[in-house]
Design a protein that fits this description.
mainly beta, 4-stranded antiparallel beta sheet, 5-stranded antiparallel beta sheet
Length: about 190
Amino acid sequence: SDFIDLNVLDSISITVLKHDYIPFSNDISISNFQLVEFDNELIYIDDGDDGTVDLGETVNVYFPLENQSLQSLQDLNASISTGSDKIDILIEDFDIAELPIGTLTLVGPAQLFIHNDMNYDDDRSLILTVSSSDALSQWNFNINLEVELYNFVITSMNLYSNEQLTDQIHPGDTIELMVLLEEHENNADGTAT
C-alpha cells in the first residue's frame, strides 16, 4: 500500500468502485489533524501565597495544554468564561504564542476574583476556549476550579430562657440560641475531616 503524507497535501482525489455500479469520483478536502489536550490536575494558581484558591481572593490561573498534533501550533487566542455568579473574571483573554509538539505548556493567565460567599452548591466551573488566529480550529475545555471553602460543623446548641438553660420553648418566650461551630478541614472530594 502507498503512504500519503497528509501534512503536505491540501486535497486528494479518491475514486470509489463497487461491483456492477458506476464509479463515484470526487475531491475530498483533508485538513491537518490537530489535537490539544488539557490536564485539570496540573492547573497552576498564582495567588501570591499558598497556590490555592481561597474565598475573597484574586488569583491568576495558568492552564496546562499539550499539543498532540503533528505540527507546532502558533498564534492562538484563548479566553475563559464561566456561568458562576460567584466568580468574577477580571482578565478573560490571553494570547498563546506557541504550543510546541508533545510538550506540556502552561498558558495564561486568566485573572479571577472568588466571592466570599461561595459555597459547595455554587458553580465553580470554567470554560477555556482556545482558537487559531484564522478561526479555523477551536478547542473547548471544561475546568473544575478547586476552591478552599469553609466547612463548619455545629458541635452544640443550647437554648436559654431568662438566662437559664432550657429545652422547652413556649409561645411568647424570648430565648437566646447559643451555637458552637467548629471549622473542619476540607478534603479534595468536598468531605470534611
